Design the sequence.
């Protein structure tokens, strides 16, 4: 009895699948039509998205081309590579340029002296830099405010007490904070370098008011900041010749670091990710070949069942 039941069940498994009825065929046809409609919808959305993107790009290029400023050339910065780190010697020299030249007008309210540790200065050097400023603190136990030497936790001091004082000292122009200036300006460090080295005599027909200077890299050409970088305007501690281009290059690199303090960490993470992904790809390929080798190389033989 059991053998007979097994033969009956087995024979059912060997039977061919019955043909689809009309209702199932209609359902499949409807599903196929809906799929084609979805494809057309996706294609239409993709075409519209691509057209809008192309229009935005064309408008941006048109605005850039119609601007009055000269676009800065692309410089061969040493940190432009995929895994290239910042030149920390240049960052340190750039800090010297900021401290001795730029800090007279520009603030860096988001950079603290502790940020220098391990990047441009040792902890002792950064403490010495911080102690070179006086910070208004308090109140003390008697309710009075007092001045104290700076600490690592203090931020770079502002040259002006408020915006109104800054404008009054610069003919109405407000010197921007330089903490994130590279990220805030189109062209990044190329723009900073070109602006600092791009002062010229105003051409005929370009009116300049009192206290303005001509710089083709600045929007409108008239800038309220005078040229501040000249050959040997400061003396580097490491003995590097302080030419105008060297000064501009170093301070632009320093401002690149202040705008992206995670720059080197991000580049280092790329190396780790590439290494790990390469290893995992090799292991995955080996496992795939190992697991599927038996399935892909097998041979299936159908032996007719004997009653």
Sequence:
């Amino acid at each position: 009895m059991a053998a007979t039941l097994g033969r009956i069940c087995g024979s059912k498994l060997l039977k061919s699948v019955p043909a689809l009825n009309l209702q199932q065929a209609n359902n499949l046809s409807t599903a196929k039509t809906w799929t084609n409609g979805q494809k057309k919808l996706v294609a239409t959305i993709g075409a519209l998205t691509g057209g809008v993107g192309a229009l935005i790009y064309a408008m941006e290029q048109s605005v850039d081309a119609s601007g009055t400023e000269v676009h800065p050339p692309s410089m061969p910065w040493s940190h432009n590579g995929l895994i290239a780190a910042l030149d920390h010697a240049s960052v340190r020299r750039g800090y010297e340029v900021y401290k001795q030249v730029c800090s007279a007008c520009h603030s860096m309210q988001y950079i603290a002296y502790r940020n220098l540790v391990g990047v441009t200065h040792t902890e002792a050097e950064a403490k010495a830099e911080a102690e070179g400023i006086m910070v208004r603190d308090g109140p003390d136990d008697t309710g009075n405010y007092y001045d104290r030497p700076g600490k690592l936790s203090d931020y770079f001091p502002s040259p002006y007490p408020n915006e109104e004082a800054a404008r009054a000292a610069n003919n109405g122009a407000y010197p921007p904070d330089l903490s994130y200036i590279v990220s805030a300006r189109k062209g990044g460090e190329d723009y900073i370098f070109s602006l600092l080295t791009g002062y010229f005599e105003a051409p005929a027909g370009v009116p300049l008011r009192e206290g303005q200077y001509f710089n083709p890299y600045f929007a409108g050409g008239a800038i309220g900041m005078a040229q501040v970088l000249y050959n040997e305007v400061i003396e580097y501690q490491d003995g590097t010749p302080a030419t105008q281009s060297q000064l501009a290059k170093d301070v632009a690199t320093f401002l690149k670091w202040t705008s992206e303090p995670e720059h080197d960490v991000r580049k280092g993470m790329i190396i780790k990710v590439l290494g790990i992904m390469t290893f995992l790809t090799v292991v995955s390929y080996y496992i795939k070949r190992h697991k599927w080798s038996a399935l892909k190389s097998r041979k299936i033989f159908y032996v007719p069942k004997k009653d």
Notes: Residues 22-66 form the longest helix (45 residues).
